Amino acid sequence: MYMYKATAGIWCTLSFFIVAGSIIAFFTPFWLVAPNNPADNVTVTDKNFIDAGELTVDAHAACGMMSYCVPYTYHPLNDSFMFSEDAHMQRCPLYTNFDDIPTIFGKVSAVMFAAGCVILLISWIFSAISLCYGYLCDVSTYLLISVVQLFCLIINGVAILLWTLSWDQNEFKCVGEGYCGTLSQFDTGRCEMGWAFLLGLASTGSILLAVFVGCLSFFLQKQKDES
User: Fold this and answer.
1) What's the rounded Cα separation, in Å, for the pair 153 and 202?
2) Which residues, other chains included, contact 212 with Cβ-Cβ below 8 Å and sequence gap of 6+?
3) pLDDT tens-digit profile of 122-172?
4) Using CB atoms within 10 A of its CB, is residue 49 exposed (0-12), middle (13-18) or buried (19+)?
5) Where are the beta strands (DSSP E) in 61-189?
6) Phi then psi for 189, rounded to 5 degrees?
7) Distances in Å between the alpha carbon of 183 and those of 32, 180, 212?
8) Closest by Cα among 192, 151, 186 to 31
């Protein structure tokens, strides 16, 4: 009798992880990552770091949808290598201005992926509501939200595809700054796919699983109502 509630609980939990993964991937720069060159690392001993020993600074570059990282050696914080509170944001800033997002493909993909994240967040809220109320305005929330999630699968998938189309543009950070060398849609050059890229792909692909579980919850609910 309560099987559909258990399935709905799994669906709600899965939807939460999809939303969290998508948002983290969206704002994280580690989609394309230039491998660390040991020669580029900065190792210093500062008298202000008592008993801290040597301070090793990560010097790799990375590019994402809404942020990027430049090597520390290209962007020193100050002459004494003392870190300010916003050191990470200086090395890995967000695109706070829409015009700063490189390439037209990058702009469109950022808007689409952001819209997908917002819709997924709203759908997760309603999936949580569905645990208490199986129907919303006489329409099964399981079926309604599954259709919405399927739509998000399409727009997020297209957004990722469009973002890869910007790789061979000179305005693309990892190309223009020479971090990755020559890039194309099927060649990452000297760079590697970062964990944020894989997280974005996994979160987007998992939407299909969420749609399946949501539809299963709908059929179980329908079966209960008919019994």
Assistant:
1) 11
2) none
3) 988 887 877 766 555 455 677 788 889 999 999 999 999 998 888 877 777
4) middle
5) 62-63, 68-69, 135-136, 139-140
6) 60, -130
7) 11, 7, 36
8) 192
